[in-house]
Amino acid sequence: MQNGEIAGLFLELADLLEIQGSNPFRIRAYRNAARTIENETESFELIVKNSPEELQSFSGIGKDLAEKIVHVVETGSFSQLEELRNEIPVGVVQMLRLPGIGPKKVGAMYRELALTTIDELKAAAEQGQISELKGFAKKTEESILKGIEHLAEMGNRALLAEAKAQVDFIIEDLSQLDSVQKISVAGSCRRRKETVGDLDLLISSDNSEEAMETLKEHPLVSEVLQQGKTKQRVRLNTGLEMDLRVVPENSYGAAMQYFTGSKEHNIVMRKKAQERGWKLNEYGLFEGEKQIAGDSEEEIYTQLGLEWIPPELREDRGEFEASEKGTLPKLIELKDICADLHMHTTASDGTASIKEMAEAAKKLGWKYISITDHSKRVTMANGLDEKRLRKHWENIRKVQEEIKGIDILCGIECDILEDGTMDLSEEVLLEADWVVAVLHYGLKQPKEKINQRLLNAIRCPAVTAIGHLTGRLVNRRKGADMDMDDIFKAASDYGVMMEINAHPKRLDLNDLHARKARDMGIPIVINTDAHSTKGFDVMQYGIFQARRAGLEKKDVANTRTLKQFRKMLRTSR
Description:
This protein is α/β, with parallel strands linked by helices. It has 24 helices and 17 strands. A 7-stranded parallel β-sheet has the order 11-12-13-14-15-16-17. The chain is globular, with a radius of gyration of 25 Å.
């Protein structure tokens, strides 16, 4: 198990305890432990396997927590968490997905109004019962109703990172079976969509019963919903459902193509087969009763006169035309990244020092980074004013003298204020190597106001990039309303880059906006927005987003050497 998965279970436990109204000190202890685990670079799974006694040497982890960590690594869960999952209705836990509603508020509504589903919560809010509770206001009630409306639009979808972590864990375990020859995830998870409605897992095996029995007993599986000879549907502990399909080896490629989708892509594939008098389904490509392809996806695409199309592009957005012409993009890969240009340290709200972040980035093979702590408007994150920022840059330069093999740029994540001005003076910002301008506040302002704020920032000579452009949070918060054509034209005219923020909760730019920016000649930067050394791990999700946008290495600025990258900046730095 990854550290993030272990930490996630303790955060879940803390949430459930808070919903119950348990001891706040106990809850805080679990949250602190989760933070320790998530931010630690050393694998807790390996610690448990090699020297479990070392667990208690970590801050906030005593004997009880150490025992739970051991149990999590060995079984995937622990009894206290399972008991709480059974005690607290699923509908109550789903309320945590509503924007601005934490476990404390959910607990109050659950205990005092006996609300156990989203529908009951909606009815109570519409009747004005929520605002009558202590600590709640009419504004909270309105926010809940808007959140429920947004949740309904999104559906019951999990973040890609959450879904991928679960299916990767299951794949790792099932692949140990001698009876399993091939195994892979399909569906929207394989296409790397931002959110996943359910999971599709394909295997070729000579013993489907063994695979299904192993999945049934897997620690991430809460119940079996359906089971036949070649298909099993299960519900995971998180509520996400997954289909396991067992297919013959000679149909594995056809099944992968079929179940990866998208629906729109598959319609075109079947039509191309029909034009040749053939039939294409999950069992293979057939001429009459004879299978002429099916072992591999490549074989199927070749038979249909196409180059193999990467899963991320399978949305019927021009990939077939490019495939037929031999002009499919050579999609960017994680190994192409040379730098990360958006990260935080203990100078604002990060958990690691400048040196720790630089050393961790160096281990990943990155050649340069930019430290971009918050500007002063973000008071909750200990944002920097001009005086502290200049001192911070001095500290960065001192660390640079100590560390060889990686360059550290003096940067800043500067807020674009509600009145359209920058949070720090242009004079100070021009001293930076790299300035990421962002919207954090006033995201609900009218389109015209949002546009003007962004245009002002783009025209500011010190700004080198716009970070997480819309300010959205996937499944949680819609982004600000803006005119993308105006914003991208200005960015292109003034030489300002656009960021794909790789954090799985942001992924902002989205794939369509990233493609549009690329088409308008705007260089893209893919950044992690890391607040710890472990935060660098999310770079892969930014790469997935870029691949869905059809981006190649040349389209992304931070695939270049520092010397090449500096030449791309709008001002001489």
